[in-house]
UniProtKB/TrEMBL annotation:
This is LAG3 protein. It comes from Regulus satrapa. GO terms for biological process: interleukin-15-mediated signaling pathway; positive regulation of ERK1 and ERK2 cascade; T cell activation. Gene3D superfamilies: Immunoglobulins. One of its GO terms (molecular function) is MHC class II protein binding. Transmembrane segments: none annotated. PROSITE patterns: IG_LIKE. GO terms for cellular component: external side of plasma membrane; membrane raft. Residues 50-131 form the Ig-like domain. It comes from the Eukaryota.
Length: 158
């Protein structure tokens, strides 16, 4: 897993044996064990790593006015009860929240306002709730509000 895995040497002296994986991949799912031997004693710790994967079709960045399919899946073993998408984490009337039993969200005519932070939240039959956030990038034309542009003679026009 090198070079994605690291230990903080300075933290080891303070008894922190945390493992850092960056970036996490789907194949990193599983059980991890840390064993520390200090003098004659051996201490161990087991940690299970689960992974949530967000898939875009077409892939990020996407083009304005296209159809976008966003899927959210995890390695959790219980049955999926509900999947919700939250856009920009706004509260109140400007929030955009979409919930369903399906793990895929479809946006028919993608707009530039759909860009930004999206959070996928999965709720399972064992009451486990897990979520992840990603940034959606949208390519589009950001032209003038009027189709007529005036420029002075001898100057540049954009």
């Amino acid at each position: 897993m090198k070079p994605r895995v690291s230990l903080q040497d300075s933290a080891l002296r303070r008894g922190n044996f945390s493992l850092r994986i960056d970036p996490v991949r789907s194949e990193d799912v599983g059980l991890y064990e840390a064993r520390v031997k200090h003098r004659a004693e051996v201490h161990s710790c087991l940690v299970e790593l689960g992974v949530i994967t967000v898939t875009l079709s077409p892939p990020n960045p996407v083009i304005e006015n296209e159809l976008l399919l966003m899927s959210c899946n995890s390695s959790h073993r219980a049955s999926l009860v509900e999947m919700c998408w939250f856009h920009d984490n706004h509260l109140g009337p400007t929030s955009r929240t979409f919930c369903s039993l399906s793990s895929t969200l479809s946006i028919l005519h993608l707009a530039r306002s759909d860009a930004g932070s999206w959070r996928c939240q999965l709720r399972y039959s064992d009451e486990e709730i897990i979520s992840t956030t990603f940034n959606l990038q949208i390519l589009g034309f950001d032209g003038p509000s009027s189709p007529v542009v005036y420029a002075g003679a001898g100057s540049a026009a954009d």
